[in-house]
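3.2 Worked example (two chains)
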Amino acid sequence: MQSEMNTDIIIVGCGVAGLYCALNLPKGKKITIVTKNEAPKSDSFLAQGGICVLRDEEDFKVFFEDTMKAGHYENNPDSVEIMIRSSQEVIGDLVSFGVQFEKNGDRFHYTREGAHSRPRILFHEDETGKEITSHLLETARSRENITLIENFTMVDLICDDNVCNGIIGHDADGNYIRICADYTVLATGGIGGLFKHSTNYRHLTGDALALAIKYDIKLQHIDYIQIHPTTLYTKKHGREFLISESVRGEGAILLNSKGERFVNELLPRDVVANAIFEEMKKEGGEHVWLSMAPIPAEEIRTHFPNIYQHCLEEGYDVTKEPIPVVPSQHYFMGGIDVDSYSKTSMERLYAIGETACNGVHGRNRLASNSLLESLVFAKRAAKHITSDYTELEKSSEITVDASQYEGYAEKYKELVLAAIEKEKLSHE
């Protein structure tokens, strides 16, 4: 079965980037959001630690330097400045949507994570991503002009002469649908599903990257893939459980099998991850240990309730014993190349969130900059679409040849992995 639908703006993905973009577009425009799985199954829901914010003008130079240093100074400084300068406005928006950040009385409570020179991270327990994304999702569902379609997989772009006219995809029953739109926004998330060990949902396989390669849309730094130092070691299959950076920010320490500390836990993620790999190699082990002993037990239970409970379910009481941890693939710093308004090299096509690369993160992302970067540039995309809006003549109905997409999932995975490997080799 095949069909066609028209909309004004199509957004692919419903994490924080896709949802926030939709909420900043005009209420008079028909907006359609499609997502590959159920709406709550985006990596945005999994973000534990928090979201960075510029605390005051005195903090700007330090925040800027922390971000640049973590990224090995391969960041785009203009993008970094835009992100930092826009952070307070974004936080204000989130609060207006009902997001609850931890407070000390009437003031925000800031925490610190690895590679940050001072506390500047807002959080909600250890489920900040869930707190933010769930409120954005609830608000989007309440808007009459926004339609959300779950379990819909994008397989192709509709484009002509480097102009995007929408997407082609299929629903859970395999029915192919052409969705024609004046503007298309890709917010498909990361690439964790391509890796054996990852903190990401398995259905995040870089579909947008595959289509970018197919249509020669410019990419950037696609071999810049971040390994998170601390995920709970397990022999079970599936997504790895993240032990938030903020745990180390609050004082947790890394130990080898002899109970010896071997690294400064607040160094950038890539440095800490490499130190763990070296220690594992030296000892011939499959993991190291993370001790939360320096953190008061009650603080663990209140600040990190989800982590505490999950570890209990796995047989570890973090208030009494260290837990085994191992680095896992976590974040994608590269992606579809975009400008400061999230425009790609294809006309009427935007990319936001983890699938895009605006240069903020450089070679290695600073902790808790992911939610902020996604939100800042999602809003900029929405504002640019709004200011630049012109209608496209919708194409007449064309039959989709579904046979050309047989086995597309594996083909797209192979395409992306090959491109990443080629990029790696070019840097050797």
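3.2.1 Second chain
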Amino acid sequence: MSRLTIRIIIILASVIFIGLVSTQIVWVQKAYQISDQQTKHEIELALIDVVQNIQMHSGDAAFLVDPVKMISDNFYRVQINEELQPYYLESLLKTEFLNREINYDFQYSIYNCFNDSVVFSKIVTNEEDHSSELQNAPNMSWNDDGHYFSVFFPTLRLEVLSEMKFWVISSIILLLVLIFFAYVINAILHQKRLSEIKTDFINNMTHELKTPISTIALSSDVLLNPKVIENPERLMAYAKIIKTENQRLQNQVERVLQVARLEKEEIELRKKPCNIHELIELAVPTIRLNFEDNKIQIRTHLNAEPHFVKADEMHLTNIIYNLLDNAAKYSDKHPIINLATESVKNGVVITIKDNGPGIEKEYQKMIFEKFFRIPTGNIHNVKGFGLGLHYVKSIAEAHNGWLKVKSKMGEGSTFEVFIPFGTDIVKETS
């Protein structure tokens, strides 16, 4: 399965996921609106019935235009100029709400029409039994008939939502199913990617180890020739080849072991004051020697002052070497590398810029992952296991620093690594 196909699958899956979630949200909103409107309508009808019952009880045949006013979503005011007996009103409210299946807690209040003051208020809960209370209720009333009442439903929204259990549960189930499938797809793609990385690592390791082993084997065969033994110059030349290739093998194995120790958190940093400029001046000749055939140019601009940091000297040296080695490997036939140092507020920034082809944006975050190498097909034109940048990033972060990359296709890449001064260094330089 190609990367293009994987991208298409991910995009389509994302669109379907977003579409289903959005559709479900719209359905739930519509269902809530319908249920809410229906509930409000039933409450208004129940309150109108209460008004009519009060008028029939008092013998008032006057017609009231729109006596029920909805002040807010859960607060209603009923305008009626009648003598209101609280517990009679409560009985009517409970009866009419029950008839219309409005089984919600509510609070009713009776007001004086002349000064809008509350003369009586009570909370009625659905769980309580009020039958005996109403039968034995005192006859509370007022001499004047200038009163109106209000009804407040404190839990109306929650009650409406509770009546939508089917919609809520179905939405939750759908969301869980979608999340599960998204997790499965992500796990499958992740495993596939790990498999590709593993395969690529094995291929690279085979290639990287096979070449020096073959070179050592050939050189050993040549040394077994008596004629070569009699020629000191040829003997020395092949001995150097064996030593060089053996060192190369050791370096590759050490890189793998270093990363393995990093993953197990077994590396202990032995920090001490380190002269970054001195470490750079030691690493640069080694890189020049390794890439002598490519006519490499390394231009240094060591401007950091102070340039001492508290770090592990060996690992800091490896950081510099790996970044220079990486820049040289991925540059053109004639690498030009600019290495600069700069002091910032809390430490030193080492910048290494190459004249390579650049890194595509989609790979710029992936290059720091273990064993990852920018795909080049089956062409092994670049050596390595894909461990260098992962190692550099891990060591920089272990020093409380960071590693960043800036790259543009056709314009090369720039790596910046920050190493803090350390408390002791700051005190000495302040």
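3.3 Remarks
Residues 271-429 form a domain with the Heat Shock Protein 90 fold (CATH 3.30.565.10).
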